[in-house]
Design a protein that fits this description.
Radius of gyration: 19 Å
CATH architecture of the largest domain: 3-Layer(aba) Sandwich
Strand order of the largest sheet: 2-1-3-4-5
CATH class of the largest domain: Alpha Beta
Shape: elongated
Number of domains: 2
CATH superfamily of the largest domain: Response regulator
Order of helices and strands: EHEHEHEHEHEEEEHHHEE
Number of strands: 11
Largest sheet: 5 strands, parallel
Distance between the termini: 33 Å
Helix content: 40-55%
Oligomer: single chain
Length: 229
């Protein structure tokens, strides 16, 4: 599995270099930006696994930039960890309400920062877990790459298995085709959005003999979701 890519958005060069050194030692791939404008350009290019975002940036603040990212269809699912010298409870609430997934106050322990980053990545990527998951009468085992329904193995191709794994670990959430391409196929895979429709159709076809095809639902005008209710 490739190393997670972390985008560090920090205008203080010394802090940015320190963060880069610490995170590279932890085997993360690092991309840097000194302000929101350059950070957006980097995001458009690489779609990072996580953004480490300073609150006090020149121009657009980190909090406002976080709000913008959470409003974007292609960026709303990128986890964000805010870094700031603001330690008051009201500031923490404001930061989290902007869409940040966690909040670290300066000065901070680098060990704590790394631990928080790993925790956020685990929470945001449950589809990459090796844990067996169950929903809607389906049992999915990612280690042996097998799906069972009512004691019978469901015949799935590798793409349909990966798509179902993502859906079942993000139950109830609606995803647009472009988001599914990024999150399931990967941002560096250049395929048309129509590919998602074809794979969903194949997935439903495989689930139909087991009476589970209705678990993968079309939300008109938006995309798809998995729901067992």
């Amino acid at each position: 599995m490739p190393a997670p890519t972390i985008l560090i958005v920090e205008d203080d060069v010394a802090i940015r270099e320190m963060l880069r050194f610490v995170l590279q030692q932890e085997n993360f791939d690092i991309v840097e930006a000194e302000d929101a404008e350059y950070a957006q350009a980097q995001i458009d290019l690489i779609h990072p696994s996580l953004i480490l975002l300073d609150w006090m940036l020149p121009g657009i603040s980190g909090v406002e930039f976080a709000r913008r990212l959470k409003r974007g269809a292609r960026t709303r699912n990128i986890p964000i960890v805010l870094i700031t010298a603001r330690g008051e409870e009201t500031d923490k609430v404001k930061g989290l309400e902007s869409g940040a997934d966690d909040y670290v106050t300066k000065p901070f322990s680098t060990r704590e920062l790394v631990a928080r980053i790993r925790a956020v990545l685990r929470r945001s990527s449950p589809h990459e877990s090796n844990e067996v998951v169950e929903s809607g009468g389906l049992t999915l085992n990612p280690i042996v790459r097998q799906v069972v329904a009512d004691g019978k193995v469901v015949d799935l191709g590798p793409t349909e298995f990966k798509l179902l794994h993502f859906f079942i670990t993000h139950e109830g959430r609606v995803y647009e085709r472009g988001q599914l391409l990024d999150l399931v196929w990967g941002v560096n895979t250049f395929v048309e959005e129509r590919t998602v429709d074809v794979s969903v159709r194949r997935l439903r076809h495989a689930l139909e003999p087991h009476g589970c095809d209705n678990l993968v639902q079309t939300v008109r005008g938006f995309g798809y979701r998995f729901s067992s209710t």
